[in-house]
């Protein structure tokens, strides 16, 4: 079994590379930060979810690059090649991201946050207003998470706490990605059994959405390389006091599904109320994974329309 685990760690890494470009290390005032950059044009700075890494930004932002924007994504502290010491709190991670922009010679950006990337990305917009021309948040955490963890969060926490089970999930993901993908669809939403079955069938019938789910799964693996960031995220989410949302003055687009099991829609509603002039898209019936829903294409169009409307000329 141990030799199989070692072999399939390599398989997981190879599969992840198929979905993400290579990364580089930037030397910043906060420490070395892993990042990637693609495209040319107005810059979108991506804050990945929990767990994740720079590769997750590469996956979700492909259409943004194709539309004439430059995407910069980085591994938040504790993930992949960015040390946790770079910044534990949302505020520290926001400041580290500003240091990354300095190192890359980038002035202003649209901040894009998803899920567990919400606290740091909201903090960036609040703490560095002169560097933000817009903010886009999708199913993002905007306030303290309640004590009652979802089934998916409990599963991730138990896996990350145990080195043996962490290795086992990486092994299982490499050998049976389809089974893991189906489970992700079920865990990420509060849909009833019929709704969950219908969504899973829809994804199974769409090669592009199947590819996306496989790619997203690759951004969770190997979990051993993302463990410190995952554990820190869960600790920080339970401690959130205020992220300074009321200080954000740039154009804001907040998107959230009503059947999100990982981050309740109340987080999107809270952010939309707190940020003056924010546009809020309430996606009826959608789970956490907005990118595989029936509304995915329409949401992609709305994101691009928003970016084009507010991008600096």
Report on the architecture of this protein:
There is one protein chain. The model is unreliable at 1-18 (pLDDT under 50). This protein has helices at 2-19, 54-60, 62-66, 90-104, 118-127, 151-160, 163-175, 177-187, 193-204, 207-218, 227-237, 265-274, 296-310, and strands spanning 24-28, 31-38, 43-47, 70-74, 109-114, 132-138, 252-257, 279-283. With 313 residues, it is of the alpha/beta class. The N and C termini lie far apart (57 Å). A hairpin with a 2-residue loop joins strand 1 (24-28) and strand 2. The protein is globular, with a radius of gyration of 18 Å. It folds into two domains: 19-144 and 225-310, 3-Layer(aba) Sandwich (Rossmann fold), CATH 3.40.50; 151-224, no CATH class. Helix content is 48%, strand content 15%.
Helix/strand-derived category reads alpha/beta
CATH class of the largest domain: Alpha Beta
Shape, principal axes of CA atoms: globular
Q: What is the alpha-carbon Rg in Å?
A: 18 Å
* Averaged pLDDT: 85
Quaternary assembly = single chain
- Give me the CATH superfamily of the largest domain: Alpha/Beta hydrolase fold, catalytic domain
* Largest sheet properties: 8 strands, mixed
Tally of extended strands? 8
Extract low-pLDDT stretches.
1-18
Helix content: 40-55%
Q: Report how far the terminal alpha carbons are from each other.
A: 57 Å
Specify the CATH architecture of the largest domain. Answer: 3-Layer(aba) Sandwich
Q: How are strands sequenced across the largest beta sheet?
A: 1-2-4-3-5-6-7-8
H/E order of the elements?
Answer: HEEEHHEHEHEHHHHHHEHEH
Number of domains: 2
CATH domain fold name of the largest domain = Rossmann fold
Strand content: 15-25%
């Amino acid at each position: 079994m141990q030799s199989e685990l070692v072999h399939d760690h390599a398989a997981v890494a190879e599969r992840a590379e198929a979905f993400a470009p290579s990364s580089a290390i930037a030397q910043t005032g906060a420490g070395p930060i892993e990042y990637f950059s693609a495209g040319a044009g107005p810059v979108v700075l991506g804050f990945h979810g929990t767990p994740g890494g720079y590769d997750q930004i590469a996956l979700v932002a492909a259409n943004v690059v194709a539309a004439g924007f430059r995407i910069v994504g980085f591994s938040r502290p504790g993930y992949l090649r960015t040390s946790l010491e770079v910044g534990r709190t949302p505020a520290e991670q926001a400041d580290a991201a500003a240091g990354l922009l300095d190192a890359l010679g980038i002035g202003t950006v649209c901040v894009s946050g998803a899920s567990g990337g919400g606290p740091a990305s909201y903090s960036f917009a609040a703490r560095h207003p002169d560097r933000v021309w817009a903010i886009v948040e999708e199913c993002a955490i905007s306030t303290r998470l309640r004590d009652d963890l979802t089934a998916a969060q409990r599963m991730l926490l138990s896996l990350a706490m145990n080195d043996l089970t962490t290795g086992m999930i990486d092994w299982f993901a490499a050998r049976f990605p389809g089974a893991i993908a189906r489970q992700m669809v079920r865990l990420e939403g509060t849909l009833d059994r019929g709704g969950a079955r219908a969504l899973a069938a829809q994804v199974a019938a769409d090669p592009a959405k199947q590819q996306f789910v496989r790619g997203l799964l690759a951004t969770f693996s190997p979990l051993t390389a993302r463990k410190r960031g995952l554990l820190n995220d869960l600790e920080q989410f339970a401690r959130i006091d205020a992220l300074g949302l009321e200080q954000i003055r740039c154009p804001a687009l907040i998107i959230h599904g009503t059947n999100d099991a990982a981050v309740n829609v109340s987080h999107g509603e809270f952010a939309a109320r707190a940020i003056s002039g924010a546009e809020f898209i309430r996606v009826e019936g959608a789970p956490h994974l907005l990118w595989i829903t029936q509304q995915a294409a329409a949401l992609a169009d709305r994101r691009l329309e928003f970016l084009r409307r507010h991008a600096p000329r």
